[in-house]
Design a protein that fits this description.
Largest sheet: none
Distance between the termini: 32 Å
Strand content: under 5%
Number of strands: 0
């Protein structure tokens, strides 16, 4: 069940990160979902380190979605930095 939860939460996080980070429309929906899944894992790992080992990658709830969205935004911004894309337009992050 954990893998399926990561995929679902990552898909939600990737979609939300695509709406939050402007200027990366070249990724498309599938690209955002893939980066969202990676971001969910990154966000859960970082949140676990910052909170002393609490597990933020289990289940589908609002906490895991928030942590996954933060991780997905970090991954999308990092991906754009690696590719050399400059952020265009207005918007958060």
């Amino acid at each position: 069940m954990g893998i399926i939860a990561w995929i679902v939460v990552g898909a939600i996080a990737g979609y939300l990160a695509g709406m939050l980070v402007k200027g990366d429309e070249s990724l498309g929906v599938i690209g955002h979902i893939v980066l969202g899944i990676v971001g969910a894992l990154v966000g859960g790992f970082i949140a676990g380190i910052l909170t002393g080992g609490n597990d933020y990658t289990t289940g589908i709830n609002i906490t895991t979605i928030i942590v996954a969205v933060i991780g997905a935004v970090i991954v999308v911004v990092g991906w754009n930095a690696i590719r050399g894309n400059m952020r265009t337009g207005r918007g958060p992050v």
